[in-house]
Amino acid sequence: MEKKTSHSTPQESMGWEIVKQLNDGLTVTGYNTLPIISSINARKMLADYFRLNVTKPSKLHSAILSCATKMALFFPDFRYVPFLEMWGLQNLRPEDSEVKVTNDGKRFHSLSERMAVAYAYSLAFRPDEHLSQREEQLLKPVLLQKGYGITEKDGKLAITVAVGYVEHIDTVHRHIHIYDNESRHFVHSYANGTNANGIAGVGAYVRFMPVIPHDSSFKSAVILSVLEDGAEAFGYRNATVTYSNQEQGYCAWELLPDADGKVLPIVETGASEQQEPCTKGYINKTLCDSLNRPMPKKGDNLQIVTFLKRGRDMKKRPVVVFYR
After folding, report:
1. What is the pLDDT of residues 189-240, one digit of tens each?
2. What are the residues facing 239 on neighbouring strands?
3. What DSSP state is assigned to residue 257?
4. Cα(69)–Cα(63) distance, rounded to whole angstroms?
5. In 3-state terms, what secondary structure has residue 246?
6. Rounded Cα gap, residues 248 and 208, in angstroms
7. Does the structure show a pLDDT above 90 at 187?
8. Is the CB of residue 208 less than 8 Å from the CB of residue 221?
9. How far does Cα 149 stand from its chain's mean position?
């Protein structure tokens, strides 16, 4: 944590005390804990800081930016853009862009990098709140390098938002596993948040911000909200039942041609490995029972929600999670 200098003014000393209290309150010490400080109390402390009218740019002013950047990741109700406008990006120091590397090679993101990521979170939750076009363009390279999907409209940045299906929750590692309709697999970490049920349960459809780094195969997600009619937003595929065995409890399906007479196979967008095009699969009785629906019969036309998932044999096959 930043420390005050030995020749601080009374205002600076009070500012450093606010930094200490914010950092202490925002520190999460274990998987089962939340930040000690509430969003409203943290925001009150920021207001107290700005009333001090301390010298800037300065180490203290950068330290309060670091605190607010943590708040932007913890508290969706925190309005990060108005804070940045009050803080003044012209007050960034050269040191704020320095990346720290420990003797064992561990890399710590610079304050400027962390600020850019927090701004991406802010855009996802509050898409109408923007910095100036010039300031956004300064942050854009960092966001692209870190894998945040960005579009531009009328000269303003927008964060890509996708729809996904919650397929599994790993309570040991505190990961929520999400698949989108392009069969891409994402992981939302809730280690620093509430329990998984307070975010989204298995079978839920969610709006999320995908993060796809250029230098890693690990795709992360930031869940923004749970959708009421998520299957429609996720997207259906039209299929017909080619075989049904009521006794053994499964049926086979294959995709139907689209309006142009073409069958579009199920593929994973951006997959690093080649795969066989998938146009057919199975529905078992377990899914039918969970949906409280009868086993489909041969010749039935269905609308299915499906995506590719890797099995124990490491092969990817289509899994159906909903049909109508």
Report:
1. 876 444 555 678 899 999 999 999 887 778 999 999 999 889 999 999 999 9
2. 255, 302
3. P
4. 10
5. coil
6. 38
7. yes
8. yes
9. 11
